Amino acid sequence: MNSEAISGGIYIAVTNIEERGRPATDPYKKHTQSNNITNELVIRQDNLTLVTRDNGEIPVADNSGYGLYYKDCRFLSGYQLKIMGVSLTPILSNDERGYQSLVVMTNPEFLDCRGRTIDKETILISRSTVIPGCVVETITVENFNPSEVTLNILAEFDADYNDIFTIRGITEPAGGKLLPARYENGEMRLACLGKDNHLRETIILFDPVPMVVAGKTCSIQLSLKPHETRVAKVQIFARDAGPGQEDVAEPVDIGRQMNKILRSYIAAVECCNNIPTSNNIFNSIVERSLADLTMMRMSQYGHTYHSAGVPWYDALFGRDSIISALQLLPYDVEPARSTLLLNARYQGRGYDDWTEEEPGKILHELRVGEMANLNMIPQQPYYGTVDATPLFLILLVEYIDWTGDIGMLKQLESNVDAAIRWIDGCGNIGGRGFTSYAVKSDLGIYNQGWKDSFDSISRSDGTLAKKPIALAEVQGYVYMAKKRLAPLFRLIDRAADARRLDREADDLKERFNRRFWMSDRNYFAQAIDADGICGVISSNPAQCLWTGILDSRYVKSFVARLFESDMFTEWGIRTLSSKERRYNPLGYHNGTIWPHDNSIIAMGLRKYGFVNELSVVFTGMYEAARLFTNYRLPECFGGFPRSKYSLPVKYPVACSPQAWSSGAIPHMLTACLGLVPDALNNRLTLSKPHLPPWLDKVQFNNIRVGDTLTSLDFRRIEDKTMVNVTRKEGDLNVLIEY
Q1: How many CB atoms lie within 10 A of CB 496?
Q2: Cα angle 174, 178, 182; round to 5
């Protein structure tokens, strides 16, 4: 039986899920319709993001997602630079600094303004771009000819003001009114009056002032003597004025913003300098990771958090912000504190099937663009996630472990209680005793774990899982949250609730191991759906190692199975076994390798004592990172065996950077050092520290546990890792467990 529905002005074809046994026709079937953004340059700061090709341009035609983004809208969909009407040849491009990109180009043969032939490779043009609250591009032209040249620099702009959901191919354009381009006194304005009555403007300033302006194209003329250098500057501002707001550009103090950016990156470098190692390439990877996490920071209501990923997920995501804050805890606790407070602010309070809000539930995604303003998408915020709520509780207890800030539990006590009520109530669909999900919204996401593509959860015969669906890793998160909260509840005089949480966690562990274990496959199932076990071999239950829910009698055979060649590629662990029907090495969640997934698994391997296996996973991810441009691990990459190709294979539309991928290497380093903080008891335990063969020495200086500081020296001697406490300030007990 088919029906048709109109929701928020968007046409959706809906198929009866129970009849067909598969998700409804899903606008999210592909997370983006773009084909390839693997050679992009990305710079961003706070809420402004610039994504260009490696030549610094935003293509006017055939744009796959490049552009200048602000508040979920593309304020530039084209910016192309030519000299004398010809395209230039890039010879260097770099976005190593997350707030700055550099492109260096040279010329083909052409005629200058006076008709003189200019030989190829005699003009050098560089584009240095920074993003201190606006885009500031400095175009430097150098003449290496023996005579004077006169050049026209032609800059072509365009702005479609499409919402990110339109760019991704999920929705049609809202239908706002594009206004004619205006130019006056060196200032070009491109604008759109949105259906939501927001006036969105792109304001472009030129120095020197263009000689000719035609529509969205400007021409600047420069004359250069032999070996002379001339400079032109372009400044681009994005402005979003809602109804009732004054039609004036908000001032940007560029110097102050640059100082703020530089201070944040200096702090990231100093953090990296606190953990020098014997491996210089690894040092560069860690520096890249911490710098990218700095670049991905956004702020809202005074709270700082990590944007999920550029360009598709450059927004607040509950799950992603929580996991990246978890990964960063040993290095910087402030993002965890802010992320907790911001997610608590948006915690669900009522019931709404359109946004899937329920009391106590932590959000999935918040969008602030035209589609959200018009209620054409549910992301305002949208709550279709099953795991953000228990992960919120886990972040809280891990934050307290590092800081000793029990006051945060008291401050968020009502939020914690609401989250637990959601897990035990709305999350326990059908009273099955497992935290599950079942999409309700017409534009909701069918699969609501971290593998949220429509085909990511399946059965062994290849058919897709039917709602309600209980994911393996989510049961682990719930177990860990309740088990870790129990002792904290005792500290705030809630002993009865502590006993209840302990009892519920133990009961969940027993039921999980009984229901999810597949004795015939020596592995835990991916999920349980409406019809029973989804018995595929996947990475989902491997995350359960981190949570402690796995019964020790199963763990040895489970880990052995995890490292068979259908799951482990030598680069990392696949999301899905190559023996499964839905396996595809370039399937978004069905065979690719996700760095954050591997980092969580690595932490779990350490917790269960599998330090050699941890070393193997860490080594694979390190060797992949060293081969990616600028040592930046992307959102995911191809799940091909290392023996097939000598390089990790790029996933064509992976977000890069992606916050929790940037956090993967620091998180794995924490795992191999075995850091287990307990600030409430002034204790730091080093549990089975184990450096991999390529890392002979690690110094971890200025580790803060509560109000104390310590510095540790880790050295690999043969196959053993020895630890020396080189500094200690405060009453901290450092325990080493081998």
Answers
A1: 10
A2: 160
CA separation for the pair 190, 183 (Å, rounded): 9
- In terms of Cβ atoms closer than 10 Å to its own Cβ (0-12, 13-18, 19+), residue 359 is middle
Domain boundaries, the chain: 41-244, 316-562, 684-737
Integer angstrom CA distances of residue 305 from 53, 96, 270, 400: 27, 22, 20, 18
- What is the reported pLDDT for 527? 98
pLDDT band of residue 13 (cuts 50, 70, 90) is very low
**Does 90 sit behind a cis peptide bond, omega within 30 degrees of 0 on the bond before it?**
no
Residue 653's pLDDT is what?
Answer: 85
**Does the pLDDT of residue 62 top 90, yes or no?**
no
Q: What is the mean pLDDT of the chain?
A: 92
What's the token pair of residue 66?
């490049």
Backbone CA torsion sign across 273, 278, 279, 280: positive
For the ranges 30-34, 322-326, 339-343, 398-402, the lowest mean pLDDT is seen at: 30-34
Question: Cα separation of 271 and 357, whole Å?
Answer: 38
Mention every residue, 6+ apart, whose C-beta is less than 8 A from residue 510: none
Is the CA virtual torsion 80, 84, 90, 96 positive or negative? negative
Burial of residue 283 (CB within 10 Å: 0-12, 13-18, 19+) is middle
Could you report how far apart the first and last alpha carbons of the chain are, in Å? Answer: 62
Backbone angles phi, psi at 515, to 5 degrees: -90, -35
Q: Determine the pLDDT at residue 335.
A: 96
- Residue 36: predicted pLDDT: 63
State the fold for domain 316-562: Glycosyltransferase (1.50.10)
**Taking 50 as the threshold, does the pLDDT of residue 1 lie above it?**
no
> In the predicted model, what is the mean pLDDT of residues 434-447?
96
The residue count of the chain comes to 738
Question: In the 3-class helix/strand/coil scheme, how is 249-303 assigned residue by residue?
Answer: CCCCCHHHHHHHHHHHHHHHHHHHHCCCECCHHHHHHHHHHHHHHHHCEEEECCE
Eight-state DSSP code of residue 586: T
Contacts of residue 494, Cβ cutoff 8 Å, sequence gap at least 6: none
Output the pTM of the full model.
0.92
Q: Six-digit token pair at 660?
A: 């929790």
- From the list 365, 273, 242, 291, the residue with the least C-alpha distance to 44 is 291
Distances (CA, A) of 140 to 124, 127, 213, 631: 8, 7, 21, 28
DSSP 617: H
- The predicted-structure confidence for 158-182, as pLDDT tens digits, reads as follows 999 999 999 988 888 988 999 999 9
Neighbouring C-beta atoms of residue 34, cutoff 10 Å: 18
Taking the C-alpha atoms of residue 638 and residue 650, their distance in angstroms, rounded to an integer, is: 6
DSSP string, 448-507: -SSS-STTSSB-TTSPBP-SSBEEHHHHHHHHHHHHHHHHHHHHTT-HHHHHHHHHHHHH
User: Is the domain covering 41-244 a CATH 1.10.150.240 domain?
Assistant: no
- The C-alpha atoms of residue 714 and residue 672 are separated, in whole angstroms, by 11
Nearest in space to 591 (alpha carbons), one of 573, 604, 605: 573
Model pLDDT for residues 96-123, shown as the tens digit of each residue? 788 899 999 999 999 999 999 999 999 9
Within 10 A of 685 (CB to CB), how many other CB atoms are there?
Answer: 14
Q: Which two tokens stand for residue 655?
A: 């977000």
Determine contact, residues 492/409, Cβ cutoff 8 Å. Answer: yes
DSSP run (H or E) holding 393: helix 388-403
Rounded to whole angstroms, the Cα distance separating 547 from 528 reads 19
Determine the average pLDDT of the residues in 537-555: 98
Confidence (pLDDT) at 16: 33
